Amino acid sequence: MADPIRVLLVDDHQVVRRGLRTFLEIQDDIEVVGEAGDGAEGVARTEELRPDVVLMDIKMPGTDGIEALRKLREQDNPAKVLIVTSFTEQRTVVPALRAGASGYVYKDIDPEALADAIRSVHAGHVLLQPEVAQALLAQDDQASGQGRGTSLTDREREVLALIADGRSNREIARALVLSEKTVKTHVSNILMKLDLADRTQAALWAVRNGVTR
Description:
Blueprint: E1 5-10, H1 14-24, E2 30-36, H2 39-49, E3 53-56, H3 65-74, E4 80-85, H4 90-98, E5 103-106, H5 111-122, H6 130-139, H7 154-164, H8 169-176, H9 180-194, H10 199-208
Parallel strand pairs: 1-2, 1-3, 3-4, 4-5
Helix pairs in contact: 2-3, 7-9, 7-10, 8-9
């Protein structure tokens, strides 16, 4: 049996953390390894506990979720961050995704859907609602990676299209009959050639430039 997905809860409301913990602890494949009440503590606990997935609120006193995300990326922490927010405004969600979140869900999400979202980001998927993906594309006034798609090999373009389709490295390996290690190398090359920071940016670049299946 596979090891459970290790989850850290970061939210300034104890009642929210308690509710999340109560539900997640009954999942056989998910283990809550800790909690934090603000972004700064969340960063410290993520470094200490090394969770697989962090459930992160956006609006918190002191260091908010977006700043915490940036700090984790600066530290090259491998944890996937899933934003759990009550704020539906694109002006709060979009910066979080730009900062490196793997996706977001709302606090009124169905519990089973939340568990599925955790499993999805852990597997390498990017969770983007269509309206937020469009907002990211519309607001993307940076030229990062633009015009550099011609430097990609045919295989790298195939991998990029599958990233845009939300596939994990394992799923890409199966689809293209490659080893997972080879796929990781292709992903690294794609990010380097396009001067992108992560898979979310790669997926958006692919959609914007028509590299899709």
